[in-house]
């Protein structure tokens, strides 16, 4: 487990650059016994070259057997213990869209979803409605009044929206209403402790009114809420790791988790060229660049094995353009596994490769789950990757006499 105070105490200055390339949900499973995973099925000559020239392994995003959300998945990759440093998804969405959270604010991540006549969820993402449609629905929900509470409802992307409640008497401790699966009704609004009962009652009032206002809309006729929380006060990434850091991500949530720990961020258009151009534009002014690719995760959640393979191959094809920037250290991994066979996040360890001129080669010549299992990094914790990247970048001094 990375010790942030220890790391901060042995930092060394160096003119080196670190690239963290996160293929969201890249870890997978075979769809038939003895078959390849998505990563193993993909033709990835460039990733394979980096694996052969570097060192590989698997990382546990949180702990063995624990399925992580995207928030803790990234917190670990940024070098923070995801069990100690916990955060609700709503704060990440708020920071991702640039919403200025005040100390008394509670923020929740919302999904527009589809329920049938019996109130059972048939699609947690309402067919991934357009961001424009979500903005129209958010405008309608802004009219819901809660006495003594100021309410903000903002679109995020596609079916996602942000709900912020502002008021002096609000407290944390309201459970999610999103059950995380289809075929069941949304969960009731429940206080996790006696002190949160009043806040839970206000949230319940809002959800019930949202249900009434959305009931005639198709396919987005209900809402699901996750991660109602306040913004925490954490040690910031630039101070802890001595790096000028920036996030290049197309989805607001991932810019949000980067901003939470003090990174800069840039908004990026929807195409792959926009992502790579943004990377090139920020490269000279930063020591650490986090690049996020969402489409691997989306394909996995949709159960589309072949599309996930295609996305991985597409990213591999862009690696020469990325490596032309001449990074000193490259980490390629995912924040969690999202096997198409499961159509969801999973607990499986995630493949990782670390490339640098100082990497001790481990004999692995391909980037895939079964290959990385034999790698020199072994099965490590996700929050151990940042100290390794710093060491390979010449940014840590000797510890002790």
Radius of gyration: 21 Å
CATH H-tier superfamily of the largest domain: Alkaline Phosphatase, subunit A
- The end-to-end span amounts to 22 Å
Output the structural class: alpha/beta
Total number of strands:
13
Q: What's the architecture of the largest domain, going by CATH?
A: 3-Layer(aba) Sandwich
Chain oligomer state: single chain
Tell me the overall shape: globular
Enzyme class: isomerase
Domain Metalloenzyme: 17-390
GO molecular function: metal ion binding; phosphoglycerate mutase activity
Family: Belongs to the BPG-independent phosphoglycerate mutase family. A-PGAM subfamily.
Please specify the SSE layout and strand pairing.
Elements: H1 4-9, E1 18-23, H2 38-41, H3 45-53, E2 55-60, H4 70-77, H5 89-96, E3 105-115, E4 121-123, H6 131-141, E5 150-157, E6 160-166, H7 197-214, E7 222-229, H8 237-241, E8 245-249, H9 252-260, E9 264-267, H10 272-282, E10 288-293, H11 295-301, H12 305-323, E11 329-333, E12 350-356, H13 369-372, E13 378-381, H14 385-392
Parallel strand pairs: 1-10, 1-11, 2-13, 8-9, 8-10
Antiparallel strand pairs: 2-12, 3-4, 3-6, 3-7, 5-6, 11-12
Helix pairs in contact: 4-9, 5-9, 11-12
């Amino acid at each position: 487990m990375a010790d942030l105070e220890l790391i901060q105490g042995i930092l060394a200055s160096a003119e080196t650059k670190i690239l963290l390339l996160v293929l969201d949900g890249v870890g997978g499973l075979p769809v038939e016994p003895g078959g390849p995973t998505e990563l193993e099925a993909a033709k990835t000559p460039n990733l394979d070259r980096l694996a052969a020239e570097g060192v590989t392994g698997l990382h546990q995003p949180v702990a063995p057997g624990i399925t992580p959300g995207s928030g803790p998945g990234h917190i670990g990759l940024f070098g923070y213990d995801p069990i100690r440093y916990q955060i609700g998804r709503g704060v990440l969405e708020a920071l991702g869209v640039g919403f200025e959270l005040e100390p008394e604010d509670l923020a929740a991540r919302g999904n527009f979803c589809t329920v049938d006549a019996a109130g059972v969820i048939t699609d947690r993402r309402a067919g991934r409605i357009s961001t424009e449609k979500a903005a129209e629905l958010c405008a309608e929900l802004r009219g819901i009044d809660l006495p003594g509470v100021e309410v903000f409802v903002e679109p995020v992307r596609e079916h996602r929206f942000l709900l912020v409640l502002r008021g002096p008497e609000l407290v944390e401790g309201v459970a999610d209403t999103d059950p995380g699966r289809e075929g069941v009704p949304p969960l009731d609004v429940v206080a996790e402790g006696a002190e949160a009962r009043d806040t839970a009652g206000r949230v319940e009032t809002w959800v019930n009114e949202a249900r009434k206002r959305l009931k005639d809309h198709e396919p987005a006729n209900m809402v699901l809420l996750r991660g109602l929380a306040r913004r925490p006060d954490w040690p910031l990434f630039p101070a802890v790791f001595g790096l000028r850091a920036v996030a290049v991500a197309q989805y607001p949530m991932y810019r949000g988790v980067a901003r939470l720990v003090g990174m800069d961020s840039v908004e990026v258009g929807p195409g792959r060229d926009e992502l790579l151009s943004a990377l090139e534009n920020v490269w000279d002014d930063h020591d650490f660049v986090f690049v996020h690719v969402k489409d691997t995760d989306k394909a996995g959640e949709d159960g589309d094995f072949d599309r996930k393979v295609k996305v991985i191959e597409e990213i591999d094809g862009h690696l020469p353009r990325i490596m032309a920037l001449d990074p000193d250290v490259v980490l390629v991994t995912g924040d969690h596994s999202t096997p198409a066979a499961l159509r969801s996040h999973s607990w499986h360890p995630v493949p990782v490769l670390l490339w640098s001129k100082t990497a001790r080669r481990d004999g692995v010549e391909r980037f895939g789950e079964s290959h990385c299992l034999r790698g020199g990094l072994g099965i490590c914790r996700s929050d151990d990757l940042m100290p390794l990247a710093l060491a390979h970048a010449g940014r840590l001094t000797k510890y002790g006499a």
